[in-house]
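Pair request: fold both.
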Amino acid sequence: MKNKIINVGIIGGSLNNQWASQTHIPALKNNPFYNITAIGTSNIVTAEKSAKILNAPHAFTNYKELAQSKDVDLVVVSIKVPHHYDAVLAVLEENKHIYCEWPLAIHTHQAEKMAQLAEERHIHHAIGLQGRQSPEVNYVKQAIHQGDIGKVISCTMQVATQGKGGITDEKGRYLLDEDNGATLLSINGGHSLDVLCYILGDFKELSATMNVHYTEAFVQETGQSIEKNTADQILIQGTLVNDTSASVHIQGGVYPAFQLEIRGKKGAFRLTQKNSYGHVQFGNLIIEKMIHPNNLFNAKDILMEEVKISEQNNDAISYVNQAYTMLAKDIVESSKHIPDFKDAVKLHRLLDVVRKSAKTGKRIFIKQP
């Protein structure tokens, strides 16, 4: 890659912003291709304080002004989902490159418009589906492609989180309103389904059930009880384009865990997560590989081992850092490798199919591109 520094402005870049301060900011600070030049928050005091600590010369409360800054080449949007649309459009108006967190928008129509405008502007656009940067995910994807476990027959994925159930905090209460577009299905489900489809291919048909077991949630800081209208139990059964049978269970308000098991004619892979919060994109994944030679299925004949692929960090910061390195390469070399707004639209549409099936009780066939 040519020696080029990309100046970055972060909308939602306050050091009080949990996700930005724990992933985007440390990833960008340690990445040699970037320089943080602007911080945008809703409060000028926190904006200036964060900018000072990060040695960024500019602080803003208006994201339009941040996008207009001549010292910003790339804008990162790391704010609550309901505000993504307006912030992204402001960036696109200035023809600046953009990295937006997932979900891209509160609904698919917004996401489609954002993707269309980004393409028309001929800028580089990235979506925060950083689970694809996992070394473990990519190892399993490549090993399956190489036939390590033979033809894949089925996959089973379990995604569980203690959040989005009957207890919340003030920061998370907006996740319990369907209209905000940041639900158990869209966040935990979206990231996990993206990883599943990235490894094995898209769904060609599915049926789904979505249930609400918690209709209220207790807010820890205030003791207030608030209404909750989002599903906390989501079941998806379907078939992928390669005829793999798929079963997915996404649940909130329960003991957290992540597991993806992929079974083939010659063996299986199992991806699990240490200290899981039900977010595959947080990293800390473990690979187990099982081989049954000569199609023998006796327990004593099955070879099972944990696959160690590297000593490098496999946490959320490293995933985001790898995503930024890929984006920098795309910008400098005019290539397209990073997951972008078109990938986001595709995932939004898949989630729409899940909702439609759950609402109608019907099995839905998905038109392939």
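--- second member of the pair ---
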Amino acid sequence: MSKHDKDDLKLAVLIDADNVPYSNVKGMMEEIAKYGTPTTKRIYADWTKPNANGWKAVLLEHAITPIQQYSYTTGKNSSDSALIIDAMDLLYSDKLDGFCIVSSDSDFTRLSIRLRESGMKVIGIGEQKTPKSFISACDRFIFIEVLEGAKKKKNITSTTETTDKKKEEKQFLKIDIETIDIIESSIEDLADDEGWAFLGDVGNLIVKKKPEFDPRNFGFPKLTPLMKSLTKLIEIHERDSDKKGIKHVYVKLK
């Protein structure tokens, strides 16, 4: 973790355009703002291709610099090498605290590991099909499917409210046994003598163990509602804090 608080993190946002639709960019930039300030924003693609036309307005709106990469060979994404080279140059500029790599490509696994070895915080954003190797190499990994652009896109394609609801439900994952095991073990790791653990600390530990963990993947806006859905496993207690109207949430295994 950087010496700075998360609100002060200076982030380089590097986007592989071949792996993300432009409808998702607004949602991605809003998500990235939760973790720090994007001081460098670059996106890599062969901008001479016809499918690059829709990007212009989006890049101008979010002040993202397009980097031209010609496709030298068929079937190979030449943007990968340009992104990796730029990331290493930025790493040695000594002006950043972390990187946000937007891609679903496993080619960035080694880059993420190298950046973290140098003390950088690495946030990955990609599709649910992203290989586990890249996900595990990041401090945190966020699935594009839960961001604003993806939801809007689904709403446009729906013909009725009922159809829309069904489609939206399908995009969420089920809470699998592995995730439940990690939730339980994290509570046990942090529990006091009476078995209670502060939910904020539990959430942070879960992400360290499983970088792609995000309540939104399962259809919950925050961690507290997700925990409340596991009533057979977890007991929840809300305690008053020093600030009026704000409660601290504690969890305990039943």
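Observation on the second member. Residues 177-190 form the longest helix (14 residues).
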